[in-house]
């Protein structure tokens, strides 16, 4: 599984791997918002938590269809299915690789962009923390969605439709935690619920993903 | 080593082959023959465990099967050595020192997978079989896009390395590989057009 993780990370970084694509998208969306809503700092700082969370969610969505599609096309997925790696492990590793190449960079870029949206100073720590807890769930749910649509031509749109509703709880609690942090309230409850969602995703979805992949490989 | 008894397999919900039975002893190969569409690929995928058989049983030592098809699973952004090293790591094996020479890849070892020709890719795909150390190989048209020299290279690896060390191979091919192996024509096993068991009738 470590070999698979290293291979995926290496492929993401090399030419055509799409590393940084999500990050650039995130950057552009957040930069566009002040142009759209005007330079009023009070308004910007109020909507900043929501904007940052929605933008990182969309950025994570952008690279989902690559998780299994490329391996399916060149036959690696069938070869992995007959290898000693359990499919559940493959699913988990793929989600982890997606998180390292998408969620993790987003998490560390977000505070910089928070500055651009004049996010309240108290909120930076919770922004970082909530993204760190929440983005793994986005990758895992997305991996499941990618497995569902793996054999389909142009499954990208269907994938978004399937996955976005499942992202809602993470989005609500993530943005709520940052908002509470910005207003000086206690965000522990929202963070813990989000942590619960992430833990639940990683406990259950690898099995669902593996079962889906097996059916799609038939 | 490999025993297939009464296997019926389906493609896209339609049974294509019915009641296929054969067995292959360690150190031997079996060549599958039959016209296009008879179900060679479907049978090999069923044997490899990628899809379930509708009926019948397939038995070989657990975790010893390997499948190779038209798609070689080569990553275009990885070099030849990195591609092979990955499959070796996944299977917990080490890269045999002479593998690149065996498949005539030594000159290409630092080339990116994406820059290889179709035949070179095929050789790399076949070299994977020499790396993963599995005993029971299911090969679907292994010689597609190989030139005569490479076919002999592959046949001699199969004969001298794989079969000689007690391996088994089931090969679907249309050409003469030049190895001594019995042939099985799949035409008599063609499933009846109205055979049941494949499609889920509730959805029709």
From TrEMBL, chain A:
Entry keyword Ribonucleoprotein: no
User: Which residues are listed as membrane-spanning?
Assistant: 12-37, 43-64, 96-117, 123-150, 157-178, 190-213
GO BP terms: namely: cytochrome c biosynthetic process; cytochrome complex assembly
Matching entries from Pfam families are given as: CcmB (PF03379)
Q: Name one GO molecular function term.
A: heme transmembrane transporter activity
Q: Which InterPro entries match?
A: Cyt_c_biogenesis_CcmB (IPR003544), Cyt_c_CcmB_bac (IPR026031)
So what does this one do? Answer: Required for the export of heme to the periplasm for the biogenesis of c-type cytochromes.
The family assignment reads:
Belongs to the CcmB/CycW/HelB family.
This protein's name: Heme exporter protein B
Native source species: Yoonia litorea
TrEMBL record, chain B:
Any one Gene Ontology BP term: cytochrome complex assembly
Stated name of the protein: Heme exporter protein A
Q: Please state every residue range assigned to the domain named ABC transporter.
A: 2-202
Q: Which InterPro entries match?
A: AAA+_ATPase, ABC_transporter-like_ATP-bd, ABC_transptr_haem_export_CcmA, P-loop_NTPase
PANTHER family of this UniProt entry? ABC TRANSPORTER I FAMILY MEMBER 1
Pfam families named among the record's database cross-references = ABC_tran
- Give UniProt keywords alphabetically: ATP-binding, Cytochrome c-type biogenesis, Membrane, Nucleotide-binding, Translocase, Transport
Q: Source organism lineage? A: Bacteria, Pseudomonadati, Pseudomonadota, Alphaproteobacteria, Rhodobacterales
SMART domains linked: AAA
């Amino acid at each position: 599984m470590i070999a698979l993780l290293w291979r995926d990370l290496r492929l993401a970084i090399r030419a055509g791997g799409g590393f940084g694509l999500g990050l650039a998208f995130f950057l552009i969306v957040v930069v566009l918002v002040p142009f759209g809503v005007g330079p009023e700092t009070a308004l910007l700082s109020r909507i900043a938590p929501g904007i940052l969370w929605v933008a990182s969610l969309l950025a994570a969505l952008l690279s989902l269809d690559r998780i299994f599609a490329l391996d399916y096309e060149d036959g690696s997925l069938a070869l992995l299915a007959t290898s000693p790696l359990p499919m559940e492990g493959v699913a988990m590793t793929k989600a982890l690789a997606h998180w390292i190449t998408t969620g993790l960079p987003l998490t560390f870029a977000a505070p910089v962009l928070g500055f651009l949206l004049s996010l309240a100073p108290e909120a930076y720590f919770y922004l970082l923390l909530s993204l760190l807890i929440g983005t793994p769930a986005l990758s895992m749910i997305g991996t499941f969605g990618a497995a569902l649509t793996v054999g389909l031509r142009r499954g990208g749109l269907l994938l978004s439709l399937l996955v976005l509703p499942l992202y809602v709880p993470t989005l609500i609690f993530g943005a709520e935690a940052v908002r509470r942090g910005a207003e000086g309230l206690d965000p522990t409850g929202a963070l813990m619920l989000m942590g619960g969602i992430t833990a639940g995703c990683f406990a259950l979805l690898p099995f669902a993903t593996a079962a889906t992949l097996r059916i799609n490989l038939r | 080593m490999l025993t297939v008894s009464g296997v019926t397999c389906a493609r896209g919900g339609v049974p294509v082959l019915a009641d296929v039975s054969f067995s292959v002893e360690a150190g031997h190969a079996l060549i599958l023959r039959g016209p296009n569409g008879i179900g060679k690929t479907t049978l090999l995928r069923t044997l490899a465990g990628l899809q379930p058989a509708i009926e019948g049983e397939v038995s070989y030592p657990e975790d010893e099967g390997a499948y190779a098809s038209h798609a070689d699973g080569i990553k275009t952004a990885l070099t030849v050595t990195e591609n092979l090293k990955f499959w070796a790591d996944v299977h917990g094996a080490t890269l045999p020192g002479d593998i690149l020479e065996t498949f005539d890849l030594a000159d290409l070892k630092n080339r990116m997978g994406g820059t290889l020709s179709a035949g070179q890719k095929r050789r790399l795909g076949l070299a994977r079989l020499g790396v993963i150390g599995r005993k029971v190989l299911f090969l679907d048209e292994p010689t597609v896009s190989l030139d005569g020299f490479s076919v002999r290279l592959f046949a001699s690896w199969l004969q001298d390395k794989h079969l000689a060390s007690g391996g088994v191979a089931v090969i679907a091919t249309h050409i003469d590989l030049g190895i001594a192996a019995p042939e099985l024509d799949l035409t008599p096993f063609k499933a009846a057009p109205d055979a049941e068991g494949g499609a889920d009738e509730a959805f029709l």
